[in-house]
Hints:
The protein is mostly beta strands. The chain is 11% helix and 40% strand. The strands form 4 sheets. Strands 1, 5, 8, 10, 11, 12, 14, 15 and 17 form a 9-stranded mixed sheet that branches. The radius of gyration is 16 Å and the shape is globular.
Amino acid sequence: MKMKKTVAAILAATMVMSTGITVCAAGSGSAAPIGVEKTEGSSGSSTTTAASAAKSSGAEISVAGSNVKTSVSGVYAAEKVQGVAVMNSLAEVRSKLNLSGSQTPYVMIFDTDTKKSSKAMDSINAAVTALGGGEIAATLNINLGAKEKGRFVSLSDGSVGMVVGLPKGVDTTKSISIICVRPGGKTTILEDTDTNPKTVTFELQAGLGTYAIVAQ
Length: 216
């Protein structure tokens, strides 16, 4: 059964602080164009363009050695995992995100770390401690929204199924889960819903979040 639980009072101090998540897009209140990630505290000189990582809806992506068609177009720039794809059909995604007729779903996925998202990583580390420890295998900044008339539209409701190929070297005998930190510090644990030891599948929430893959 799919499990989603909020980490309890032990994380209260970290849940109220700003996360420092900084994946940006045009039309979402930032001057950065779609496909650009700003590091925390950046003046704009340390941006990473990801035009070469752009994928269209229906593109095949290698996820842990298997070709998977992702239904959502966007920037798939994560390199610390073995591929990322949205599992639901395009029609399902549109329905689950309550998109209007002129909107198309769009996702931006980047690797991140303490330097880029220090406050989010503080919340993630606190969650790992609260859960009794574990290894953080990879951490991603993901923004799931939509495009309308060429501009990015932020979303706040809905979710879609996402599969991520685990980084090489992860102990596949361990239990895998996802720690998600949203802007404002809300921290949630997402259970792996697939049976493939090489991948993790979870419900990606609409909007911006930092997602850590944890092996316990």
